[in-house]
Amino acid sequence: MKLILLGAPGAGKGTQAKMLAKKYDIPHISTGDIFRANIKNETELGKEAKGYMDQGLLVPDELVVALVADRLQEDDAQEGFILDGFPRTIPQAQHLDKTLDEMGTKIDHVIDVDCPDANIVKRLSGRRACIKCGATYHTEHLKPKVEGICDVCGSELVLRDDDKPETVIKRLQVYHEQTQPLIEYYKDKNVLVSVDGKLPIEDTFEIIVDILGDR
Ligand code: AMP
Fold this sequence. Notes:
Blueprint: E1 2-7, H1 13-24, E2 28-30, H2 31-40, H3 44-54, H4 61-72, E3 81-84, H5 90-102, E4 109-114, H6 117-125, E5 127-130, E6 136-138, E7 157-158, H7 165-179, H8 181-187, E8 192-196, H9 201-212
Helix pairs in contact: 1-9, 2-3, 4-5, 6-7
The protein binds adenosine monophosphate.
Adenosine monophosphate is lined by residues 9, 30-32, 35, 52-53, 57-59, 64, 85-86, 88, 92, 162, 171.
C-alpha cells in the first residue's frame, strides 16, 4: 500500500502515519524526521536544512526531492510506504509522480488529515519531543509515563524550536500557501480522501483503516 498523508503541521498526520506503518507493516518515511536526524548528526544537509526549519520555512525543493527518490528505491519500500510531510509543494508532487512512474508504480491513497488552525496552535504548543529519538508526546492528550521523560528511550522531552508559537504561525501560513494546493492536485487524480483530524487519535485512525481496508 502506497500512501501519502497530507495535512497542516500538527494536524496529527505524523501520529497517524506511525500507527498505520505499524498496522500495515510498511515504512514510515517522514522528511521532517530525516532532516532532524541530519541536524543531530551535523551533516551538510542538516546544516543547510536547519536555518529554514528554525524559521518555519520549507527546505528548498531540490534538497528534498532527491532524498525522497533515493529512499523510495530501498528494499523495504518496494511493497508499500507512507509518506509523511512529503510532498509539500506542487513541484515536489510532480517530481514524486515522475519518480514513481519511472519505478512503474503509483500512489494508492492520499489521506488529508483536516484540522482547523486554532486546534493546531493549541496542539503544537503542548507538543513535546524527545531530544534523542524524536518520539512526540502532548502535555494534555498524550502524556509520557514520567513527566518530561521519553517512554521509548528515557531521554529528555523538549518543546521543539519549530513548535514555538511564532514559528507555528509561520508554518501554518506556509502550509496554506504552498501545501494546501496539493489537496486539489490529488483530488483531480481521484486518490484523495479527507478525514477529520479534530477527533481523538484512535477515532481518526479507525476512520482511515476503514477507508484503506484490512490488507
Ligand atoms: P515536519 O516534522 O514534517 O513538520 O517537518 C519539519 C520541518 O522540516 C518543516 O517545517 C520544513 O522546514 C522541513 N520539511 C520537512 N519536510 C519537508 C518537505 N517535504 N519540503 C520542504 N521542507 C520540509
